């Protein structure tokens, strides 16, 4: 097959490209330029897409003897990921930009361009597995659960999965670094990138404030009393406890958490821990890497990239789903994603629109 290996400049994508070449594929390395003003150097393990990263990717491609290109997708990334991130926070929701990047950049823009250029597939260094099942290819969790990235790949549909390779899914991270060193890759000990790649200093609140502006508003408790003041409701998310700056403590001294963010009134609501628990989740923008479930089915539901999996009953209704968890959990906010599993297999995903507590 003719395969585009997405090369970020890190150790995972380097070994990914090498393994695809070892498997006999015709491999071309592609680095995505996602920033219109890429920095020269990375800031420790934060950020990505710097000139240094592009150079690291090129050196690996040269060592492998494969063609290497830089594809400029900065405009698409800004519109589909960065601006989406800002608009979601403006609306009081909590987005996951990694899912958006996978859906709209790596497995939409990149894959679409690769197929248009008559490549057969795209390979990435994500930790996940593709397994041949009775209904075609299936997306499964990685062997290394500490690095499993099937959650952020839950946005793929069946056609995208059919044109994807994840050759690292059967290997642990330490073994990947060992393999990179044995292959002589200079990136073998390069630190992993983390947090939000386009907020290199990690200050999400400051970054959002610079784009949305400060907007003072009240922090209100469950009785309706104003107990504090904020500089922008967008900076708060459901389940948050630290950094609230509350001026009126509860009489019993109980800790308080953000329970709701209302952008229309610029109000942040807080309450005690018991008010955070939800067991009913509604979602839209459903994505199915295989057949969509019919009727009510029992599945596992994961609500964060490296979070716990909860037993649940799921019902799909067109582009929407209702997920009823067997037990309540905290800190679930609109804008986040719920990814559904049957064992290790990813069944599908949806963007959370609202949460609640079942009456039964």
Question: Topology, pairings included?
Answer:
Elements lengths: L1 E5 L4 H12 L3 E8 L17 H14 L3 E5 L1 H17 L6 H20 L4 E3 L4 E6 L2 E6 L16 H5 L1 E2 L7 H10 L21 H9 L4 E4 L5 E5 L25 E7 L4 E6 L5 E10 L8 E7 L6 E9 L2 E10 L7 E6 L2 E12 L4
Parallel strand pairs: 1-2, 1-4, 2-3, 4-7, 8-11
Antiparallel strand pairs: 5-6, 8-9, 10-11, 12-15, 12-17, 13-14, 13-16, 14-15, 16-17
Helix pairs in contact: 1-2, 1-6, 3-4
Commentary on this structure:
The protein is 24% helix and 31% strand. The chain has 360 residues and is of the alpha/beta class. It has three domains: 140 residues, Rossmann fold, CATH 3.40.50.620; 62 residues, SH3 type barrels; 79 residues, Beta Barrel (Elongation Factor Tu (Ef-tu), domain 3). α2 links the parallel β2 and β3. The protein is globular and about 70 Å long. It starts with a strand and ends with a strand. Its main location: cytoplasm. One of its GO terms (biological process) is tRNA wobble position uridine thiolation. This is tRNA-specific 2-thiouridylase MnmA. Its EC number is 2.8.1.13.
């Amino acid at each position: 097959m003719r395969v585009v290996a997405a090369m970020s400049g890190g150790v995972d994508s380097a070994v990914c490209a090498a393994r695809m070449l070892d498997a006999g594929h015709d491999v071309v390395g592609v680095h995505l330029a996602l920033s219109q003003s890429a920095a020269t150097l990375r800031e420790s393990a934060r950020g990505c897409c710097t000139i240094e990263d592009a150079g690291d990717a090129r050196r690996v491609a040269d060592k492998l003897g494969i063609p290497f290109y830089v594809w400029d997708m900065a405009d698409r990334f800004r519109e589909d990921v960065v601006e989406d991130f800002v608009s979601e926070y403006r609306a009081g929701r909590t987005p996951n930009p990694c899912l958006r990047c996978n859906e709209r950049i790596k497995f939409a823009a990149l894959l679409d361009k690769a197929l248009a250029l008559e490549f057969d597939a795209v390979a990435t260094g994500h930790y996940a597995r593709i397994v041949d099942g009775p209904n075609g290819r299936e997306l499964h969790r990685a062997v290394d659960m500490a690095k499993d990235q099937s959650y952020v790949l839950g946005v793929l549909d069946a056609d995208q999965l059919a044109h994807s390779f994840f050759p690292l899914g059967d290997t642990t991270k330490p073994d990947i670094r060992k393999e990179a060193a044995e292959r002589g890759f200079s990136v073998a000990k390069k630190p992993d990138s983390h947090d939000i790649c386009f907020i290199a200093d990690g200050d999400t609140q400051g970054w959002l404030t610079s784009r949305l502006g400060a907007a003072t508003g009240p922090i209100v408790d469950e009785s309706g009393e104003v107990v504090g003041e904020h500089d922008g409701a967008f900076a708060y998310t459901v389940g948050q406890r630290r950094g609230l700056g509350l001026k009126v403590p509860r009489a019993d001294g109980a800790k308080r958490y953000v329970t709701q963010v209302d952008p229309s009134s610029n109000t942040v609501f807080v309450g005690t821990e018991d008010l955070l628990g939800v067991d009913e989740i509604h979602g839209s923008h459903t994505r199915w890497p295989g057949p969509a479930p019919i009727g009510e089915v029992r599945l596992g539901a994961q609500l964060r990239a490296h979070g716990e999996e909860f037993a649940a009953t799921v019902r799909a209704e067109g582009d929407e789903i209702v997920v009823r968890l067997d037990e309540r959990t905290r800190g679930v906010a609109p804008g986040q994603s719920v990814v559904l599993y049957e064992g290790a297999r990813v069944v599908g995903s949806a963007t959370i629109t609202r949460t609640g507590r079942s009456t039964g």
